[in-house]
Amino acid sequence: MKWGVALNVRETLSETLRKAEVADKGGIDQVWITDFPALRHAPAVAAAVAERTESCRIGVGMMSPLLYSSTHIVQLMSTLIEHYGNRFDILLGPGDRYALARIGVPYSAKLAVEKTVDALREIKLGLSEAGHRSSVLLGAQGPVMINASLEADGVLLNYSDIEMIEWALDLVKSKIPDDFQLGVFPPTYVGECQDIVSNVAISISAAMVAVGLNKGVSEYFGIRDEIEAARLQLKKQGQLNMEIAKLLGNKILERFAFCGSEDQLIEYLSQIETRGFSFAVFGPPQGIRKNGVEILATAKSNT
Amino acid sequence: MSSSYSVSVGITTHMGVSATKWIADNADSLGARSIWIGEDIALGQETFVLTAATLLQTKQVRVGTGIIPVTVHNIATLARAGVTLDEIGPGRFAFGLGIGGIQDLEKFGMSVKKPVTELRKSVKTLKRLWAGETVESSSELFSIHDFSLELSNPLDVPVFLGVRGPQMLKLTGKIAEGAILSAPFDYLRFAIETVNDAAEEAGRNKDDVEKVVWVPTVPTFKGIKDKVAKRVVALVIGDMPDAVLEMLTVDKEKVDLIRKTVAASGPKEGAKFVDDELLDVFSISGSKEHMVDRFEELAAIGATEIVIGPPFSGDWREALVEIFAEVDARRNSQ
């Protein structure tokens, strides 16, 4: 099981570089440099991370094809590889509709799917034609994107719940190509976690993923009313806060995040590994925490 | 003669990694003031990654984009890239912006109805974001709502504008930290005066606005092929606004023919009509002594920095070394 950590969420560049070095030296396999709504530009940060690290793979993204053209994404990946070697992978996904709306990027469910799927094909082709061996991964939640991910080199599901993961897997099980990479990318907090709602950072991160869930999927899992209520509040208030997270409640938030001890993390990873998953990227707040990467490196060394 | 100007190197995203890496590796030791990176839209290396890599590879030189067209990037991406590049090379990054070349924009089906207004709004919005404000702003090309970079300290990213027309020059004098100018000598005199006058009208000191001159440099003493130089000059003529061409004492019919040919068939065909006179008007070419003479003439009319840029052909590495050495030798002999 490969371990990854998401950095460049709200940290300064120097903090991201420090954490990337800790991850690299601590045996974390992948460092993912998140892009918008992160406030620093992922490809430029990825260049700086490559300069400061030696062996970890560097993921760029999630990058939204609604914000960047396929040509631009191929170009930036090629430039990174030509300068720093074959260490880079890319994660594509439509991105957060509310954040994109704030910077004038039009979003509709149809447009998001169409553009992302077209970009996935174009970017895979473009990188392959350039002779680069980067993995092109798709971030997915709902059935359309999960099915679309079969054209990618792998998928990252951004929920943690085993029931939901099994459901996602059932959608594509018979069609999964050889060498397809199955991964999860849930908000993560490794540490004392009796009650998720009492931890603001993980609650907000989990709520952010939850409100983006497709209506059909939320209906299927019987959580549609709570998610719709939270989404309505988000629309009214403009940004996620604990009031909205509390509307979702512990049970729903837990489906979208990992919050638990080191032992529980290892147990969780073993559960998903038996289901065919080969990597986990630990999303915020773990990488934002001052010692979050050290905690992961210690946990990994104990496996 | 003059030590009042700096010499820099200009590269473009269309250049190969080995060439841009060599320049980054050697810029400090050559004594370059800056490395300016021009974005050839959708061609070659990605502009922000190349800029980051160049900053990471150098220790002393300023690294600037020269220019990035605001027409092809989301304004939030420009703002975020500015923050990131300033953090990668604290105090060494300069953000060169512009609307983009006429040929490029046409090729990508883009047009801007009010380019001066667009550039003004873009710069104002970027500066407000870097100052730490939450911004609500829109223009012909962008709209942002309730967007902030959540900076704990305001950033002071110097903005340089790649401009040619009179209104753009005035805008630069009013709002930018520098102008990146690319035009024939006769026009450059007018351009520098216009920028200076606009700066003073806006209550600024004209010396607070740097005047960076980037025209094609063709060091024929190191084996550069004539046809390469002519192709670059054809491209420059093809992109030259009417306002600039009207001020020149060149054969207008020939220039028109070149522009039409470049528009219809590209710079390679246009190059067939570029003669030695036009080569001299639109580029700095010849021996290193002659080239440095031209640098000094430019400094005398107010250029603060001269960029040695593409075409990089022939033994261009050695040509760069010799030109910088010539500049140094003249300074030391003063």
Can you tell me about this structure?
The complex is a heterodimer of chains A (303) and B (334). Chain A is α/β, with parallel strands linked by helices and 303 residues long. Chain A has helices at 13-25, 42-52, 70-84, 97-102, 109-129, 143-148, 162-172, 200-210, 215-220, 224-237, 242-256, 262-274, 292-301; strands at 2-7, 30-33, 57-63, 88-92, 136-140, 154-157, 181-184, 188-190, 258-260, 279-282. Chain A has two domains: 2-187 and 261-301, Luciferase-like domain (TIM Barrel, Alpha-Beta Barrel), CATH 3.20.20.30; 192-259, no CATH class. In chain A, strand 6, helix 7 and strand 7 form a beta-alpha-beta unit. The longest helix of chain A is centred in the middle third of the chain and has 21 residues, at 109-129. Chain A starts with a strand and ends with a helix. In chain A, 52% of the residues are buried. Chain B has two domains: 6-222 and 283-332, Luciferase-like domain (TIM Barrel, Alpha-Beta Barrel), CATH 3.20.20; 223-282, no CATH class. Chain B contains 14 helices and 13 strands. An eight-stranded parallel barrel of chain B has the order 1-2-3-5-8-9-10-13, surrounded by seven helices. In chain B, strands 6-7 form a two-stranded antiparallel sheet. In chain B, strands 11-12 form a two-stranded parallel ribbon. In chain B, helix 1 (17-30) links the parallel strand 1 and strand 2. The termini of chain B are close together. The model of chain B has no long low-confidence stretch (mean pLDDT 93). Chain A binds chain B through residues 10, 12-14, 36, 38-41, 43-48, 51, 67-69, 71-72, 75-76, 78-80, 82-84, 101-105, 238, and chain B through 17, 21, 42, 44-46, 48-53, 56, 74-77, 80-81, 83-85, 87-88, 138, 142-147, 149-150.
